[in-house]
Design brief:
1 helix, 128 residues
């Protein structure tokens, strides 16, 4: 048995094992760096998602408020249409009363004109 040769083989195996361990450590370091970068990207994505969720919630609140406003507007439009119908009815009644008053005025004017004609006529008995 050659002890030197055996020791050289053991030393060579030890060097190779250390080299492999060093390479494995380097690969592990690179993998950890990639994992760190992936974690940072995930954190940034989570932050973007949080901002998006806040914006989405704000938009949802606006939509809910808009729906309430539309309901109020619809209700007021219904009330307005009822009021408009009442106003049209009132306007028809007012037009009717105005026309009646206008007819009465015309008749009164005609009667007044006849009275004036009668007063202007000369008396047939020779009196002025």
């Amino acid at each position: 048995m050659n002890i030197e040769k055996t020791l050289q083989l053991i030393a060579e195996s030890q060097r190779q094992a250390e080299r492999r361990a060093t390479l494995a450590d380097q690969r592990m370091d690179r993998a950890e760096a990639r994992a760190d970068k992936a974690e940072q990207r995930a954190d940034r994505a989570d932050q973007r998602m949080d901002r998006f969720d806040k914006k989405l919630n704000a938009i949802a609140d606006l939509v809910r408020g808009g729906i309430k406003m539309v309901r109020v507007i619809q209700k007021s439009q219904v009330e307005m249409s009822k009021s408009l119908a009442e106003l049209r009815e009132f306007h028809k009644d007012l037009d009717y009363k105005f026309n009646v008053l206008l007819d009465a005025h015309v008749r009164t004017d005609e009667k007044f004109n006849r009275l004036l004609e009668m007063l202007r006529r000369k008396d047939g008995n020779g009196r002025n």
